[in-house]
Amino acid sequence: MAGSRTQLEELVAEDIEKTDGIMVPVRALMMERLFVKKVSPGKLHPNPDDEFCSPRVGPNYRIITDYERQFRYDGEMRVRTSDDRLQVQKVHPDGYMILNGHHRWAAAMRVGFKKIPVSIINLTQETDIEAMLRNSQHDRRVTLDLDEVIFCAEGEPQEKPRHFFFNPLRHERVRLGIPALLHFLAKEGYDIWIYTAGYLSFDDLGNYLKKYAVRVDGIVTGTALKTKTAAGNRQKIEQMIDARYRETVHIDSRMVLRTLHETKEFEEYALGEDTAGWSGDVINIVKGFKKD
Asked: What CATH number does residue 31 fall under?
C-alpha cells in the first residue's frame, strides 16, 4: 500500500512517475565526461527497472545505513578510484540516470551531501549500432567478450600495458596475442564485435583498443543493464545483426563456435589449456574454415 511506503520509496516513486515516458538516454560530450565529476542528488534519477525501485524488492536499508554511517564518519564520499563513483548515464530532458550506486545515492541524501561523485557513461545505443552496421565492410563477423576474453586475469600472459591520457581502463590487462589475433581476423575478412556487460563508454573502449593498434567494427556495452528499453533494444539489435551477416564466429577462452545464419548450422572447436599459445590455436582453427 502507498501509505506504508517510506519517505525514500515515495521519493523514488514520484521521480519514476515524473520521468515516465519522457526520460531517454543521450550521449554526453567528452568535455562533460572529463570535467563533470560531482552532481547534486536532485540531478540523479533512479533506474525504474532496477530492483532498488521495485515494490517487491526495494531498497536494502541495512546497506543504506552502513553507507550512511561511513559517510558521516568520513564527512564526505571518498573517491579512491573511478569505480567508487556512482556510474550514471546522461538523460533527456535533464540530469542522469543511475546505472550503479542507488544505495550510495540514498545514503548521501540522508546525510545531506550537496554533491555526489559520478562517472558519466556513454552506453552503446541503438543509433550507434545502426551506424556501425552501415559502416561494416563484410558479411562475416567475429564476436568476443571483453571481460572474459579480451581482458585476462592476473598471472595470465598479457600484452604490455599502454599508458595514455584519460584511460578509464588503466587497471585492465589485454590477453597476450589479442592484437595479433584481431589483425588476422580483419585481414581474413571478418568484422570484429566486442561485447561487455560492464558499464563502459563505448567510445572509451574503442580508443583504448586503438592504443594496441586494434580496429573493431562494433562495440556493445552495458549488456547487463536491466531495463525494458534495453531488453527491447537488444532484441532489435540482434535482429539487425542477423540480417547483416551470413556467418558469426564466437571466440571464447576455451572454445570457438562458428554459426551459419542461413542454415542455423554450427561447428564447435575446443581450445587447449595453453594460455600462452591461445591466440595461435584460434588462428589455426579459423584458417581451417577455408579448407571446409
From this structure: 3.90.1530.10
Give the helix ranges, DSSP H, for 112-226.
Answer: 126-134, 178-187, 202-210
Number of domains making up the chain:
2
Residues 143/257, Cβ–Cβ less than 8 Å = no
C-alpha closest to that of 41 among 92, 95, 78: 95
* Helix count and strand count (H, E) for the chain: 9, 12
* Alpha helices, DSSP H, located in 90-158: 102-111, 126-134
Tens-digit pLDDT profile for residues 170-185:
678 899 999 999 999 9
Question: pLDDT by residue (tens digit) across 83-142?
Answer: 578 999 999 999 999 999 999 999 999 999 999 999 999 998 888 888 888 888 899 999
For residue 74, give the H/E element and its range. Answer: helix 61-74
Question: And the C-alpha cell for 256?
Answer: 570457438
Could you say which of 66, 92, 120 is where a domain stops? Answer: 120
CB 96 within 8 A of CB 39: yes
Q: How far apart are CA 203 and CA 23, in angstroms?
A: 22
Phi-psi region of 101 (alpha: psi -120 to 50; beta: other; left: phi over 0): left
d(CA 221, CA 203) in angstroms, rounded, equals 10
d(CA 3, CA 33): 40
